[in-house]
Amino acid sequence: MVYLDDSFPSHPKLLIAAELLGGGEAGYTRAFTGYVSFLCHARRFGTDGFLSDGALRSMNHQSNATEVAAVFADPRVRFLLRVDGGYWIHDWHQWNYETAADIRKRKEIKRAQNRVRVANWRARQGEKKACG
To answer: Could you give the CA distance from residue 98 to residue 96 in angstroms, rounded to a whole number?
Structure first.
């Protein structure tokens, strides 16, 4: 799950990015969907807000992600920060409170709890058959 402020659709920087991406509905759509795609990618792959150049190239089916990323790094927008090898999503941890390590740990705990639950269920099923 990723988080966006409810004012994001009308955020002034998003509107600037939309103009830099061609303006109108098409520019807005590229800006909006591009940013949401970047957030989703970072969360899904546990990058803590980093988008590698390689990841962006693999996302180019989506409105030319490398161009959208470059616009987001423009000083007038600054949704992304350009670094060697890719981009950092600005304020990632302000909005996405869990780190990738936190998420992995939570999932490990859930898997362990699930293993215990399934083992207990199977044991009860075996008892029913033995009584049976």
So the answer is: 6
Query: Would you call 35 exposed, middle or buried from its count of C-beta atoms within 10 A (0-12, 13-18, 19+)?
Result: buried
pLDDT digits (tens, 9 = 90+) for 63-122: 789 999 999 999 999 999 999 999 999 988 776 666 666 666 666 777 878 888 888 888
Report d(CA 23, CA 130) in Å as an integer.
71
Query: What gap in Å lies between CA 21 and CA 35, rounded to an integer?
Result: 13
Structure tokens of 103?
């998420």
Return the residue matching tokens 């999932």: 107
Nearest to 16 by CA among 64, 96, 77: 77
Span 19-28, pLDDT tens digits: 999 999 999 9
Say how far apart CA 1 and CA 43 lie, in whole Å.
7
